[in-house]
Amino acid sequence: MLFKLSLRNLSHSIRDYAVYFITLILGVMVFYLFNALDSQSVLAMVGSSSYEIIHQMMAFLYLMSFFVAFIMGFLVIYASRFLIRRRKREFSIYLLLGMSKKKISRMLLCETLLIGLLSLVIGLLLGIAMSQLMSIIVARMFEADMSAYVFSVSPFALQLTIFCFGFMYFMVILFHMFTIRSSSLNAMLRSQDKSETTRPKNLWLCLIVFLIGAVMLGYAYYRVSVDVAGLEVVTLMRMIVYGIIATFLLFWSLSGFVLRIAMWRRSFYYRGLNSFTLREFYTRINTTVSVMSIICILLFFTICIFASAMSLNSTFRDDLERRVPRDVQVISRESEEEVSALLSGAGFDLSGLRAVDEGPTYEAQELTLSDTLGGRLEETMSQWYAMINFDATETIMEQSDYNRVAKIYGDEQISLAADEYAVSCSMDIWKEIRTEALAMQTQIEVNGRKLKPAVQQCLDGQLEMNGMVINLGIIIVPDGLMREDQVASNWLFADYRAADAESRSEIETSLQEASTRCSAAMSVNLRSVIYSDNTGLGVMITFIGLYISIVFLICSAAILALKQLASCSDSRPRYALLRSLGVSEREISRSLFVQTLLFFGAPLALACFHSLFGLPFCSKLLLSFGGGDMSGALLPTGLLLIVVYGGYFLVTYLCSRSMIREQRVHQE
Questions:
Q1: pTM for the whole thing?
Q2: Which of 235, 371, 391, 414 is the most exposed place for a label (fewest CB within 10 A)?
């Protein structure tokens, strides 16, 4: 009997459960999807270095999953509060008809288990289906053998998902039982008569609070817009706290005078249902200031995290061919002997290589980073003191050697007089610092010869072939200036003669073995490994950013949706009054649409405004990884917001419209 009653209740309350049900399904799907990546059969065919990156990514995702489970558990319990409140009058009728609280708890237990099992099954099925598509995408990124693909299910991800969401449902059941048993019959009967009251706020106090919030926010924006490199972690955290407090103050103050401002424009305020729409929105925002502030911050973090992840992935992927121009690069240190001679002595057959270029780099003890920065030193030290050793000797290359490397990379070559020098760098932020130092006509002294800048612009260039833009500076001097005892390292660039993958793999294995046998410290940079590592790192960052962003978006949108539905439930008598006054259903629906749009749009609008300063700050931070261009990340970030946030907005509007129409049916 209780089971049949539970089924009937679910069928009658399907609109109330829509947001709750969708949130559970999305939570289960995302949870399984991101925990099942490493179990796909096709990923067993990726290279060892790529698999190591995937393994590291999964270790981080597993840790993130516990955080996600906690967040989703809080969200599920929050949603349950709305559902229980919505049905308390129904439960009170059951009590009046003689049903005990124990039986009501059992009935609610059946409903919770039914919707929990249904959402778990649908979410797992969608997660399993999406994981197959995701595994194919990841495998293509890592250039795995697609012939190894077979349909697969991750037992570990299944068990982890069932355990975490089973624990959440258990907490929800306990919450339901406690709520029913602790509620009196009178409280249940009056539950829907209670609505959140709003008290008018003093207009001048609201204006003062608004100005305080605006000043705090402006100060935080200013601090993260200038001297980013010198911004300490403690100061950065303080600015974030200022931003959070200012966000709360802005919403609190706006909730106080937004209606007053609209009322001043009488022609607008009294047009159609504008007065009703604005008052409903005023009531919602007044009672949800804290919620709106939290959601605004979550949306801001979502935009910045996902855009930064996409930007880094784009940096690792794009322009990789220019940064990795040859099949192999070998760098030897602590030896004046050329790399080719060292490799031959270690038993490596050089006939497998072609287009070989090699040369030395130098160091002079009297030429340090401090010497080359000149008048720019003090300001640079204040910004980078904790990260850079300014007493470190500079890397020096003679003109002809540098020009050969520049030709390999496709960079600008240089011509120097006997008393001139130049500087090359690959990091944008350090390129600016170097350029400013050169513009000050900073002179240096190398082996007793004083040199002046040949050009006042730092050249774009790098030496080490690693796929990352990490060259802080190379000093280029005239030929013949350096001594052999000042050789710091020797470098070699080459391509493979063989075209087939098997022969290339044999050459790489032989080269790695020879490098370990050499007496000198030697590093081998292989194009195949660099491509794999950069692709893997980009994929890892993208997936982690996507995981966090989707969870934040689901939480933000679900909380807003539940708040809107709760407020709409409380406002049903007002909509009934509008109908009795002759207002058409079309006008009522339009008013509800505008209310929902304003309610969802307010935190998103302020989050986007925060992002106007947050994204440039993230861009400057990403310069240390060679990234920084956020323009390509804006489109996918916008699409993510439209799909998830916009999807919740649409479902909320449709459920709200159905809810107020339900009142009309009851009246008829």
A1: 0.71
A2: 391
